[in-house]
Amino acid sequence: MDIFRIEGPVRLSGQVTVNGSKNAALPIMAAAILAEGQSSLAGVPRLSDVRLFGDLLQTLGCRVERDADEPMRIDASVISNPVGDYEIVRKMRASICILGPLLARCGRAEVSMPGGCAIGDRPINLHVRGLRELGAEIHLKNGYVIAEAPKGLRGASIFLGGSFGSTVLGTANVMMAAALAKGRTVVESAACEPEISDLANCLNAMGARISGIGSPRLVIEGVPHLHPVQYRVIPDRIEAGTFMVAAAITRGELKLVNCRLDDLMAVVDKLRNVGVTVEPTADGCVVAGTDHLRPTDVTTQPYPGFPTDLQAQLMALLALAEGNSVVIEKIFPDRFMHVAELNRMAADLRKEGPAVIVAGVKNLVAAPVMASDLRASAALVLAGLAAEGTTIINRVYHIDRGYERIEERLNPLGAQIFREDAPAP
Ligand code: EPU
Question: Fewer CB within 10 Å, N or C, the chain?
Answer without folding.
Answer: C
